[in-house]
Design brief:
Two copies of one chain form a homodimer. By secondary structure, the first copy, chain A, is of the alpha/beta class. Helix content of chain A is 31%, strand content 14%. Chain A contains six helices and six strands. Chain A has a six-stranded parallel β-sheet with strand order 3-2-1-4-5-6. In chain A, helix 5 links the parallel strand 4 and strand 5. The longest helix of chain A has 16 residues. Chains A and B meet through helix 4 and strand 3 of A and helix 4 and strand 3 of B.
């Protein structure tokens, strides 16, 4: 049976950090550097956190976010061996629901609507793997948690980490091989690249 | 630990049958009786199935559906003992995403956004119970399937059936008691009320 992967949207396949920095500069005239986001809760990295957060509720914020580098090729590659579900905590920003649906349709047309899940709490999603940038999701997932590097999570050490989509594909392929060949050891925990 | 219930929207907490019949009459001048829907795939029950199906894509179809009789009181009651998730296959009708969110906010304001899930395929949703009117969901759920009676499913016999929200609350309460007292037998399969 094919294994299943739940893949988060924001900061995993959608480059929300870059989008947020650009929009903050457009609206408030201050350009925050990517380095300034390292190790801080996302909105706290901006000079005015409340103003930064208000941008998340503006029409278009999610619709026009750039695609994360390598995500399209990676998901196409993983789809050969896994059933992929896009799982986004979109319910926190209800105006984003249709924007996120349209964004996926534009950039990931090879993902069926049957494999898209917009939710709040991800703890009832049961897949073999979850690739996500947030501990609030990874800590409670039912499968193997895979931490996708984002500025805010660089100090986290308690999950297997991937820094980009090349590493993510390599990890998942190694996990597949290990599960098919019991003589190989799972890479779970062995490929931390912090 | 509190057990979890996934609850479908259409034909379970939202009275889609009544809504569909009313809108079909408004648009096409023919009133279909509720009895005409019995035992048939939903759209096939209308004189022009394609025309009936086209109504599902019209703005407002889901937003203004009536609430299923007794659903609000039942969910409030169940919430005392269970963690409730609304799980709707909304992704098939993407324009319904925000309508369904607003509908829930209006009629079920006591359900947090954290407990709302809009998806396509429900097979990766892992809750202890699933209350749904469709076999395509119930047959693949990870918990105990509970068939909520709708016109199209009246001939189904392979899941525990509830005909209304009074029966659903009674079943879930009995299940809770049985799980807390091993001397009682689970009602699973014993309360078929077809």
């Amino acid at each position: 049976m094919r294994k299943t992967i739940a893949i988060d949207m924001d900061n995993v396949i959608a480059d929300i950090e870059t989008n947020w920095i650009n929009l903050y500069e457009n609206e408030f005239g201050v350009r925050v550097k990517k380095e300034d986001l390292l190790g801080k809760p996302e909105d706290d990295a901006f000079p005015d956190p409340a103003a930064a957060r208000s941008l998340l509720y503006k029409p278009g914020f999610f619709r026009f976010a750039p695609v994360m580098n390598g995500a399209q090729e990676a998901l196409k590659e993983l789809q050969k061996d896994f059933d992929i579900y896009i799982v986004s905590a979109a319910m926190e920003f209800p105006t984003s629901l249709f924007e996120k649906y349209e964004w996926l349709n534009e950039h990931f047309p090879f993902i069926s609507w049957k494999n898209i899940i917009f939710c709040g709490d991800k703890s009832v999603i049961d897949t073999d793997f979850l690739i996500d940038d947030h501990l609030k999701n990874l800590d409670f997932c039912k499968g193997m948690p895979v931490l996708f590097t984002a500025g805010h999570n660089i100090h986290v050490t308690r999950h297997t980490r991937v820094n980009n989509w090349t590493e993510a594909v390599a990890l998942l392929k190694a996990e597949k091989e290990a599960s098919e060949n019991p003589l190989l050891t799972s890479t779970n925990g062995a490929v931390k690249t912090v």
